[in-house]
Amino acid sequence: MIHNLTPAEGSVIRVAGPVVEAKGMSQAVMHEMVEVGRNSLIGEIIRLEGEYATIQIYQNTSGLKLNEPVTGTGNLLSVELGPGLIGGVFDGIQRPLESIRKLTGPFIKQTHGVTALSREKIWPFQPKAKPGTQLISGDILGTVKETNLVEHHIMVPAGIKGKLVEIAPEGNYTIVEKIALIQEEGANGKKTNIPMLQRWPVRTPKPYTQRLFASTPLITGQRIIDTFFPIAKGGSAAIPGPFGAGKTIVQQQLAKWSDANVIIYVGCGERGNEMVEVLDTFPQLLDPTTGRPLMERTILIANTSNMPVSAREASIYTGITLAEYYRDMGYAVALMADSTSRWAEALREVSGRLEEMPAEEGFPSYLPSRLAEFYERTGVVKTIGTDNRTGSICAIGAISPPGGDFSEPVTQHTKRFTRVFWALDAELAGSRHYPAINWMASYSEYIPNLTDWWHKNVDATWSNYRDEAMRILQAEDELKNIVKLVGSEALPDKQRLTLETARIIRIAFLQQNALDQIDTYCSPQKQHKMLKIIIDFHHLAETIITKGAPIFKVTQLPVIVDIMRMKDNIPNNKLEQLDDVEKKMHQDMDNLVTTLG
Amino acid sequence: MLNSNLEYRGVSSINGPIIIVENVKNVGYDELVSVKTPTGKTRIGKVIQVSQKAVTVQVFEGTADLSPSQTRTRFLGHSLEVPVSTEMLGRIMNSYGEPIDGHPNFFTEEKRDVNGYPLNPTAREYPKDFIQTGISAIDGLSSLVRGQKLPVFSSPGLSHNALAAQIVRQAQIRNANEPFNIVFIAMGLKHDDADFFRKGFEETGAIKNVAMFLNLADDPPVERIITPRAGLTLAEYLAYDQASHVLVIMTDMTNYCEALREISSAMEEVPSRKGYPGYMYSDLASLYERAGRIVNKKGSITQMPILTMPNDDITHPIPDLTGYITEGQIVLSRSLEKQGIYPPINITTSLSRLMKDGIGQGNTREDHADLSSQLYSAYAQYNAVKSLVTIIGEEGLNARDKEYLRFGERFERTFINQDRTENRTIEQTLDLAWSTLSDLSEEELLAIKPEYIQKYLHKTKTEAK
Predict the structure, then answer these.
(1) What tens digit of pLDDT does each residue of A141-163 get?
(2) Could you tell me the CA-to-CA distances from A185 to A130, A133, A188 in Å, in that order?
(3) Residues A315-358: tens digit of each pLDDT
(4) Chain-centre distance of CA B133, in angstroms?
(5) CB-CB contact of B377 with B411 (8 Å)
(6) Nearest to A87 by CA among A300, A357, A257, A240
(7) Cis-peptide into B343, omega within 30 deg
(8) Averaged pLDDT for residues B376-392
(9) Taking residues B192-204, what's their average pLDDT?
(10) What mean pLDDT is predicted for residues B146-163?
């Protein structure tokens, strides 16, 4: 409860789509969750003037009439936290879509009284804290094996500290049963019963002890991302791109293969069939490190484009609040939001109905501050609680700029608050170069943070090879303009070699087939070895060209086909086969030199 | 409904399609309104805002000859409903599902809310069954899948109507005896175009399988907002109650969006890009997302919306927002049309997102996926070479580039191009693809598994000899 007053009891005085006005609401507070009408539609107060409240309704308002009742709930718009989140599919305000389907069939109709987490399901609770110890918020009371991949820590809720008087013995409990009793200091200290179920308001960030430096990469198995534009655990990234450039595939690849402990996938105003695709494939795909179905670490927030627009606005806050909850347990969480443009449009639509003064392209002037509030909830932190766990949230937001034009407000403002920018390119997508991430327009500010990790865990030469490859791509980009004018035949052999190596980097390394069993995930070790072979090829070829080998002979070396196919021919667990390619490369070059005499 | 007996005389203001009625009690948001003109005709509208002072009503058939004092309104207590029935197949209806083909009225089994309800994502079944349109550029490279929404982006003057008619005639589900119907939704269509479709369907006999909803260019724009909803409501009935596979053709979405803009500005809403309302994305999604399949239901709804891009601009809000919702797009190109290629499908910008799961062994053929990605990248290469030729001439090309030039020209002439009555099976399409690829050297075919090259290309080459 946010206040001790009796909840407001008002009535509807205006209905305009998802925006409703009510009077008699002087007891209400800003952002309070209210129930509206005879069907108890869920809404949130977004403006208060005297006894008048403006309410954003998260369900369809068809049939809502004047004078229908509006009741305050005494809570801010919040989510339920506890075992049962993982593997769940929720809408933007955390209503469980599976349960709704049982009630209303395949189509979503007005329902009420459905809770996000099941009150009946029992969970095996394992106590960890000892009675008599002093506990503070964030301390772990016990654990529940939520799935085979996620050990759920039941933590002391925010605002509670004191002596643990009682703790439930090992056994099966529902989330509403009491599992601990904590008493504040002093003989008459307040006693609080604690169940596994907790709540947290979605628009308030959960507290942490301290922010830490992000120095571990989120390994995604996607070569252009990990090697060229990496993101750190606790980092933030933007993927803007016109339609058809493959935003969703990139997001889904990240959700599938990232080495995070928990994945939260927010489908925000996107296609229904895409959510089904995730629901269909994730239970079958296995996590590359643990071999368990990916659904065992995934939460889906599905607010598709035909579902109420205001719940779309809430969906990313719902997602990030769940992320913070798992971060507090000490996990690395990755959140994918597809697409933040649809979220911004929901903001615009509600703002328009409130008759606010529009700023750029009709978006409200508070768009940038809302974006900042969201992305600033990412990061690596020392969590609350005495045992100093480290947890992180990394957020990857897809952007759908109108007409693919990156100068529009959502892209521009997101760029200010994220540190990685993966620019998707319609032209690359048109030539079926996937992932269609444009290497000239993209950047990552995390490279200096992560170099140490690569050098320690993969190879001490990592950054040399990466930088060299980037230089070659850069050189190609400049040469391309000349080639357009005079044709490649007119260039000197060394420059033609640069073009050839760049072509190999593009096809053999940057292009990655999400649908190929082997190529869909590429381990960091394989990434490094592949790039090393390509760059070594470049250097060796440079040497023999200096010795007089003609470029057309170099580009016809049989090893080039092996290099091109190493991404889908050589599995991650048979990297020694890459040594064979390397050997063949040396042989081919030697043979060519011999024929020169 | 108690309320529906109450008739209110007089409205306080009339502006475009919007009327405002004061002192009305017990009215719900989105409710249907019957509006009686001073001459006694009845029109319908819906409530778009209720407040203590007044109710705002959008009148579907326009507000011409309404007068503030003589107009009478009656609030019906439910939202707009249209009849649904299998007897609507073979018939032509207006936006409200009433027959306008001169034949007797059909027996209405049931009426349904035109807005439908959002489909629960967990109740959806992922679309993965191939639909053969008989058109190589679509079947081979941007395959249509049951339950998909795949629009055609055209421009004024291109042959999208011929293409739509051909798809209606030829579309079929392979190896299946399940019922297959077409709902044809015409929005703001010119009389000539409407006749073209009507005659075409009647002559070929396709009409018995088609339910046609017709809204002409000179019908009131507000009605255009209802037309697709009425058609989709019937489609849902056919698919989920009658277990039929329904292909919905919606043309022309540009007219629909123009109507949306017209109404929005009459309501004095804050406009977004190019004057279109900020909610156009959500509004279009409420139509397009009605495509799909449902778990444990036999039927499916597949959509092919057709739109004409204003000024041939694919970044215009109408194609742009559509492309963000639909699962791919088929883009028509003026330059191919000028070269006499039909259908003038621009391969580079066309795409079917659901293709990957609807093709391959069991659906089409094992080599389909590799073959299509090879064609895409080879055709992209051809386009790059072509732009090079304009600067340095064909003589300046190296051998590899010349191969691509030959491939691309043949590909356009024989693969993309086909007759308006030519119905190619998917096997014919794929074999044709192999024979165009035989212009390239085998080292170029990096997207294709070597075993398929062995199995199909070598066969093609031997046959050619």
Answers:
(1) 999 999 999 999 999 999 899 99
(2) 17, 12, 8
(3) 999 999 999 999 999 999 999 999 899 999 889 888 887 888 88
(4) 14
(5) no
(6) A300
(7) yes
(8) 88
(9) 88
(10) 95
Contact B31 A63 (CB under 8 A): yes
Q: Considering Cα of B123, then B129, then B130, then B132, what sign does the dihedral take?
A: negative
pLDDT tens digits, B310-365: 999 998 999 999 998 999 999 999 999 999 999 999 998 899 989 988 999 988 99
B153's tokens: 């982006």
Residues whose CB is less than 8 angstroms from the CB of residue A517 and which lie 6 or more positions away in sequence, other chains included: none
pLDDT digits (tens, 9 = 90+) for A207-247: 999 999 999 999 999 999 999 999 999 999 999 998 888 88
Q: Pairing relation of β-strands B92-93 and A443-444?
A: unpaired
Q: Helix or strand or coil: residue A66?
A: coil
Q: Comparing C-alpha atoms, which of A91, A108, A111, A92 is closest to residue A347?
A: A92
Which of B122, B278, B369 lies nearest to residue A98, judging by beta carbons?
B122
Lookup: tokens for B206: 């396709």
Provide mean pLDDT across the span B66-89. 90
Residue B402's SS3 state is helix
Q: Amino acid identity, residue B35?
A: V
The percentage of chain A sitting over the pLDDT mark of 90, rounded to a whole number, equals 74
Lookup: tokens for A356 = 């606010």
Beta carbons of A13 and B273 less than 8 Å apart: no
Average pLDDT over residues B287-300: 94
DSSP calls for B309-323 = -GGG-TTSHHHHHHH
Tell me how far CA of residue A236 lies from CA of A218, A255, A376, A380, A420, in angstroms. Answer: 11, 14, 9, 11, 6
Q: Dig out the tokens for A444 from the structure.
A: 């990552």
Residue A21 makes CB contacts below 8 A (sequence gap 6+) with A12, A13, A14, A52, A53, A54, A55, B51
Residues contacting residue B234 through CB under 8 Å, at least 6 positions apart? B82, B84, B88, B97, B183, B211, B213
- By C-alpha distance, the chain B residue nearest A107 is B119
Instruction: Quickly list DSSP for B76-143.
Output: -SS--EEEE-GGGTT-EE-TTS-B-SSSPPPP--EEEETT--PBPGGGB-----EEE-S-HHHHHHS-
Q: What is the pLDDT of residue B2?
A: 43
Tokens of residue A193, six digits:
């019963």
Cβ atoms B185, B213 nearer than 8 A: yes
Average pLDDT over residues B206-220: 91
For residues B94-109, one letter each, b for 16 or more C-beta atoms within 10 angstroms of the residue's C-beta and e for the rest, the string is: bbbbebeeeeeebeee
Condensed to tens digits (0 to 9), the pLDDT of residues A374-389 reads 999 999 999 999 988 9
Q: Is B442 on the interface with A (CB under 8 A)?
A: no
The amino acid occupying position B259 is A
Cβ contact A302–B329 (<8 Å): no
- Side chain identity at A470, as an amino acid letter? M
Interchain contact B275–A (C-beta under 8 A):
no
Smallest CA-to-CA distance from B354 within B375, B321, B327, B384 is with: B327
A391 to chain B, minimum CA–CA distance in Å? 31
B216 in A contact zone (CB under 8 Å): no
> Tokens 């409240």 identify what position?
A53
pLDDT of residue B453: 92
In tens, the pLDDT along B163-178 reads 999 998 898 887 668 8
Per the CB < 8 Å rule, is B240 touching A362? no
Closest CA to A313 of A274, A345, A335, A338: A345
Pairing of strands B180-189, B210-216: parallel
Residue A43 above 60 pLDDT? yes
Q: Is B214 left (phi over 0), alpha (psi -120 to 50) or beta?
A: beta
pTM: 0.91
Q: Which chain B residue is nearest to residue A61, measuring alpha carbons?
A: B29
